[in-house]
Automatic annotation (TrEMBL):
<dbReference type="InterPro" id="IPR036265">
    <property type="entry name" value="HIT-like_sf"/>
</dbReference>
<dbReference type="GO" id="GO:0009117">
    <property type="term" value="P:nucleotide metabolic process"/>
</dbReference>
<dbReference type="GO" id="GO:0003824">
    <property type="term" value="F:catalytic activity"/>
</dbReference>
<feature type="active site" description="Tele-AMP-histidine intermediate">
    <location>
        <position position="113"/>
    </location>
</feature>
<feature type="domain" description="HIT">
    <location>
        <begin position="20"/>
        <end position="126"/>
    </location>
</feature>
<dbReference type="Pfam" id="PF01230">
    <property type="entry name" value="HIT"/>
</dbReference>
<dbReference type="InterPro" id="IPR001310">
    <property type="entry name" value="Histidine_triad_HIT"/>
</dbReference>
<dbReference type="InterPro" id="IPR011146">
    <property type="entry name" value="HIT-like"/>
</dbReference>
<protein>
    <submittedName>
        <fullName>Histidine triad (HIT) family protein</fullName>
    </submittedName>
</protein>
<feature type="short sequence motif" description="Histidine triad motif">
    <location>
        <begin position="111"/>
        <end position="115"/>
    </location>
</feature>
Length: 152
């Protein structure tokens, strides 16, 4: 399943009832979860741009990081923990950490999320940041097992 702007739960006015990320938090849609705490859940992006591309999302539904009550302070510890976990397990050469707010910024799933993207020396810089192709399930499974030790 690949979220797009035409999917339920992805429009700017999406509610938690039809939000794909809320369903992941609830466990009704499977994910390759790599981290969770009381405020956030993190899982591999099925359309990851680089090996280990992970999304960190708040457990509560909020459209983006600049709408409603501040969300970034609550999920910042999870972002930090995920980046350190990926650094330890995947040994990338660098990271990009980013979030988009609103359709004009490129947001396509309207539940706040932060991309933690490991970067590797063979594809440096912004010109090599985005590769929008879907990641094969076997590759996601292999990366998930490497990060988590194969445990849920």
């Amino acid at each position: 399943m690949s979220p797009s702007e035409t999917d339920a739960g992805t429009g700017p006015d999406a509610s938690s009832a039809d939000c794909i990320f809320c369903a992941i938090v609830a466990g009704t849609i499977p994910s390759r979860q790599v981290y969770a705490d009381e405020a956030a859940v993190a899982f591999l992006d099925i359309n990851g741009w680089h090996r280990g591309h992970t999304l960190v999302i708040p457990r509560r539904h909020v459209a983006d990081l600049v709408s409603g009550e501040p969300t970034l302070p609550a999920i910042a510890p999870a972002i930090d923990a995920v980046a350190r976990l990926l650094k330890d397990r995947l040994a990338p050469d660098g990271f990009n950490v980013l979030s988009s707010a609103g359709p004009v910024a490129g947001q396509t799933v309207f539940h706040a999320h932060v991309h933690v993207i490991p970067r590797y020396a063979d594809q440096p810089g912004f010109t090599h940041l985005v590769d929008p192709s879907e990641v094969p399930a076997a590759e996601l499974d292999a990366v998930w097992a490497e990060i988590t030790g194969g445990t849920a």
